[in-house]
Amino acid sequence: MSGPLEGADGGGDPRPGESFCPRGAPSPGPPQHRPCPGPSLADDTDANSNGSSGNESNGLESRGASQRSSHSSSSGNGKDSALLDTTESSKSSEQSARARTQKELMTALRELKLRLPPERRGKGRSGTLATLQYALACVKQVQANQEYYQQWSLEEGEPCAMDMSTYTLEELEHITSEYTLRNQDTFSVAVSFLTGRIVYISEQAGVLLRCKQDVFRGARFSELLAPQDVGVFYGSTAPSRLPTWGTGASAGSGLKDFTQEKSVFCRIRGGPDRDPGPRYQPFRLTPYVTKIRVSDGAPAQPCCLLIAERIHSGYEAPRIPPDKRIFTTRHTPSCLFQDVDERAAPLLGYLPQDLLGAPVLLFLHPEDRPLMLAIHKKILQLAGQPFDHSPIRFCARNGEYVTMDTSWAGFVHPWSRKVAFVLGRHKVRTVPLNEDVFTPPVPSPTLSLDPDIQELSEQIHRLLLQVRVEGTGLENEEGVRNRAMDI
């Protein structure tokens, strides 16, 4: 038995969303939108006269409602499809843009890695990080250009801005050619203090750097330097601290011995444009300050005149004689390089700035590092007096070791009676198999500060913190240096 449907009797309420017509047939949908379709008088007449007419009429209405529903559904589906197509097209465009950006990023990273110095190259994530750090350092150096070349306007009251001769380009070429003709490894270049650009460079530069002369036209000199050397160049060429290029260098008065002036060591980029990466050659730069008139009627502008001499490996022709392969160093009680003789550059392949502040033990052969503890013990025992020690092996820039006879002396501070610094005099005994010490090794060796180096450095530091009480071997710094040079 079937029970009465809810709402079928007169007293029942229709369910939500349904309404009842007089004939009792439920009509789907909300009442306000779907009223009960009561038949008209014509429909009744047709129904009484022909029973099939009502069925046909109901069929037409049903088909019309179905078509309207189908049209509404297809219209909604069309909108959804269009929206979906738009969303997919937007996603595809974003993915394409992201892929293009990633490709450009990888291309830029590859190009940056090609320009990275060999000793800084790494693999994987460490290589990418080193590349980005190197690029950041380059950006900082470029920003420093503008600050550096404003020095002249700030230092016009300094003596260097007064009593200065002015030269034309022809006069400058005539004077400096005497140096370049005498030494084929030398060229001269004048850099404007106002713009930092090259205003003159001798023809010998293109030969030494193996590139066309057009490369230098209008270029910033700092852009030709290795990025790690730009700061050294800036710090050594402040206008107020430079000697003046005077009339004493003219042809009638003889050549000036520019090697007696304060020099700076930098690596300059060269090589043909087709090379995959830049190649740097080491040079000794001797800076002067002068004024140059670029053209007739143009005002003279202050310039830094540089005499650049290429540095060769001391073991290649022209070789440094074996009895002249000597250099000196100075390091702190914590075994950090404090000063390096410029004579070390052709013997080890490092420029002075490469070693300053670096741990001494880092460059020694691992088997020779413990010898440094015995050396510093003897320095303390002898109250700084000089003494000879057994040879040690030092890693050159090309990755090979040179064996050096060493002599050591210490400076004991007269007030604190502690060793303030240590002087070393080194003479190369055996040369590396690869005589070109400036060539970076491939692959580049990783000189890392491992815990053994750190621990040994701390032992030496604690040792030298002891106070010298006995003995009278106290001497000033100049005396210690003179004795070390006489060993």
Automatic annotation (TrEMBL):
Pro residues composition-biased segments: 25-38
SUPFAM superfamilies: PYP-like sensor domain (PAS domain)
Sorted UniProt keywords: Nucleus
Annotated localization: Nucleus
InterPro entries for the chain: PAS, PAS-like_dom_sf, PAS_fold_3, PER1-3_bHLH, Per1-3_PAS-A, Period_circadian_regulator
All residue ranges annotated as the PAS domain in the record: 340-383
Polar residues bias (residue ranges): 84-99
Region span, Disordered: 1-101
Protein name, per record: Period 1
Organism (species): Pontoporia blainvillei
Phylogenetic lineage: Eukaryota, Metazoa, Chordata, Craniata, Vertebrata
